[in-house]
Amino acid sequence: MSGEADEVLVRRVARSGDESALSELYDRYSGLVYGMGVRYLGDRALAEDLVQDVFTAVWRNAESFDPSRASFATWLFRIARNRATDLLRRRRARVRTIGDDKVPEPGEADPAGELSRGFDVVAALSRLSEVHREVLELAYFEGLSQREISGRTGTPLGTVKSRTTAALRALREDMLAEENG
Amino acid sequence: MSEHSTVKDLFGPYLIGALQPEEARRVEEHLEACAGCREELRDLRSVHECLADLATAGTPPPDLKDRVISGLPRRASYRVPIAAAVAAVVLCTVVLGALYAAGLFGREAVASATLEPTDLAPRAGGELRVRESDPTDPNARAELEVWGLPRCDENEYYELWFGEEGGRVSAGTFRVDTDGRGTLYMTVPEEAGRYRQVGITLEEFPEEPRMNSAKVVLGGELRRS
C-alpha cells in the first residue's frame, strides 16, 4: 500500500469533504467490502448496496473517526459488518446460494456469527504488516504459486512458505487480540 | 530446526494446497502424531477458508465507484458546529421561503407524497412535493412540511431519503422546532422525483457509526404528477 496513510485521508474527508481522499480509500477497501458482501449476503446487487452504504457512511461520519481508538480499517469494517447485518435482517428475497454454501435465511441475521468473523478477518488483514499482507494477497487474491511469489518478491522459496504460515498465524492472533481487547 | 518447527512452518502452503506431494505427506504424518499441531491447523484453517472465499467473490463492477461518489450527500453539516448548522438552516428556510412566496419555485410539482407515521412517531405526519427547477440547474426543489415529530436530542437529526429497491439517495438533513414542526425548502438530486418511496429517519451522530441506528419515523409512496 502506498501513498498517504488511511488516517490522513479520512481526516481530509472530515475537514474539507475531499472526494479524492474518499476515492483513494475506496480503491483500497472496496474490493474487500464487496467480497464480504458477496460472500455473506449471497447477492451481488446487495453487495453493491453494501459498498455504497459503507462509503457513504465514511463520508458522513468521517469527523467521528478517532484514530486513538481504532485503526481506520477496524472502524470501516465495523461499519460494514453492522450494515451487512442490517441488510441480512431486512432481506426478503429467496435464499440464494454461492457455490455450495447456503447463506443464512432471510431474517436470521448472522445466526452463527459467520458474518462477524468474516469481517474480522478482512479487518485484521488490513492491519497486517506489509510483508505479511503482501504474501497473502499474492497467494489468495492473485493466485500465485509459492514459487511465483518467490520470483515476484525476490524472496527465497523456503522463506515464502514460512512467511505464508506466519502471516496466517498473525491474522489469527490479531483477531483474537481484537476479540479480547 | 526440529521436525516439529519445520512442519509448522508449512501449514500455510499446506492449507493453500501449494506443497509438493512429499511435503504434504510429511505434514499429514506429523499431524497424525501431534495434537497441538492439529489444533493450530484447525485455527488457521478457519482464517484460510475465509480468505479463500473472499478471493473467489470477484471485484466490484467498475462503474460502482462513480455511483458511490456521485451519490454522496451534498451537504456540509458534519463540518460545522450543530448550532451554526441549525442557524444556517433557519436562515436558508427564511430566505428560500421568501423566494418561494415570490413565486420563484412556482413550477408545477412533478411528484408528491403524503408521509405516514411509524410506531416511533405515531402522531407525526408530513407532505412532500418535488418541483423541477430552472432548466440550467441540475437539482430539483423539494418542499417538505412535517409535524408531530419528537424533538431531536443534541446529537440527533432527521434525514430525508428517496429510495426504491436497489438504491436510495439522501436529500438532506433537518431538525424540527419545539412543537415538532418543520417547513423546509430543500435542494435535492434531480432524479429524486423518479424514486418510488420517500422516508424520514431519525439519525444520530455516533461515536461508532452504525447506519442501522437510524430509525424510520415517516414514510410514503412518491406519486408522479
List keywords for this structure.
heterodimer; A: 181 residues; mainly alpha; two-stranded antiparallel ribbon; 2 strands; B: 225 residues; alpha+beta; 6 helices; 9 strands
The count of β-strands of chain A is: 2
What is the count of helical runs of chain A? 8
- What's the main sheet of chain A like? 2 strands, antiparallel
Oligomer kind = heterodimer
Helix-strand pattern of chain B, N to C?
HHHHHHEEEEEEEEE
Strand order of the largest sheet of chain A: 1-2
Amount of beta strand of chain A:
under 5%
Question: Quick one: overall form of chain B?
Answer: elongated
Q: Main beta sheet of chain B: strand number and arrangement?
A: 9 strands, antiparallel
Q: What average pLDDT do the residues of chain B reach?
A: 76
Helical run tally of chain B: 6
Helix percent band of chain B: 25-40%
Number of strands of chain B: 9
Strand content of chain B: 25-35%
Quote the distance from N terminus to C terminus of chain A: 26 Å
What this model shows, in words?
The complex is a heterodimer of chains A (181) and B (225). Chain A is mostly helical and 181 residues long. Chain A is built from 8 helices and 2 strands; from the N terminus they run H-H-H-H-E-E-H-H-H-H. Chain A has helices at 6-16, 19-41, 44-61, 72-90, 114-127, 130-141, 146-153, 157-180; strands spanning 97-98, 101-102. A two-stranded antiparallel sheet of chain A has the order 1-2. The longest helix of chain A has 24 residues, at 157-180. Chain A is globular. Residues 92-109 of chain A have low confidence and may be disordered. Chain B is α+β, with helices and mostly antiparallel strands and 225 residues long. In chain B, 32% of the residues lie in helices and 30% in strands. Chain B has 6 helices and 9 strands. In chain B, strands 1, 2, 3, 4, 5, 6, 7, 8 and 9 form a 9-stranded antiparallel β-sheet that branches. In chain B, helix 3 (21-33) crosses helix 4 (35-55). Chain B is elongated, with a radius of gyration of 28 Å. Mean pLDDT of chain B is 76; it is low at 76-81, 99-106 and 207-213. At the A-B interface, helix 1, helix 2, helix 3, helix 4 and helix 5 of A face helix 2, helix 4 and helix 5 of B.
